[in-house]
Amino acid sequence: MATYDVVYFAWVRERIGLPREEVESTAQNVSDLISELSEREPRYAAAFSDLSAIRVALDQDLAQFDAPLEGVHEVALFPPMTGG
Amino acid sequence: MLDASLSEDRYARHHILPEIGHKGQDRLGAARVLVVGAGGLGAPVLLYLAAAGIGHISIADDDVVSLSNLQRQVLHSTSWLDQPKTQSALARLHDLNPEIEITTYPVRIYDAEAISLVGQHDLVIDCTDNLEGRYVLNHACFKARVPLLSGAISGWEGHVGLYHPAQGGPCFACVFPEAVEERPAQNKGVVGALPGVVGATMALNAIKHITGAGASLLGKLLLIDTLWNEQRLLNVAQDPACPVCGGSHQEGC
Ligand SMILES: [Zn+2]
What we know:
The structure holds two protein chains of two kinds. By secondary structure, chain A is an alpha+beta fold.
């Protein structure tokens, strides 16, 4: 079991209702972590329903969803913003 | 004719800044910058770049000033309602700094014309309000090998990145690939001062890029959340599988 600081931006944050939280998980990679969260509550499932529009950064490095979480402290999830 | 001593006065606070000085100010004066979008982000970008003495500014926008713009688009005024934003911008910027050249394009930029227009500039600043326009600009900048400084906002948040694959960094599509599926509709709400924060950050990074001052945003994505006071500077890299710039080192087209 590891603890991650998970940070949400833009409409991901709006749907989940929190800017950040600590998450305890046994997930091996980002996809597993997102699946775990989506099973917890509908607001997570709503936020993560379209992963093609969400990007992830692990400890401030842009990463893929299959990237391993071992040794990672912060997981940031953010969509592209479109307004100008 | 320009009076040299007036110009000396106008940029005095740049001249005495060690990272800019007369040399940096000359670079700003020689720069040709295209700003696409004269709305929320375009307002501070255009005001600060004109004030900073960017020698040639091109402005592309096909919209007119509407009342709901004025809560955040501080470049425009009530007396310019229903007039083209390019004309409102031109009048305001000329009043602010008559020493610079300004060209206006009151049109929406599409692929073919975008590439030729982009190629006439040293830097393109993306202040558009839609993803489609961002992908058009990104593609055009990649083809023309012109750096793209791109910003976007939503609600209380924004992001800013500098994309220039010719120098090894990612393009916009490396970081935000074009989604096959329709993206969730974004709430159009935006707090009035937000484009000020994000747009001024863009203007500042344009000045840094042109003068070579400090650390570049190349290979970085700055995320700003003003509601919860969160800010992140992410490292982003070129995606070898990117449909726009992937394999750009091998072939030149
Ligand atoms: Zn790319």
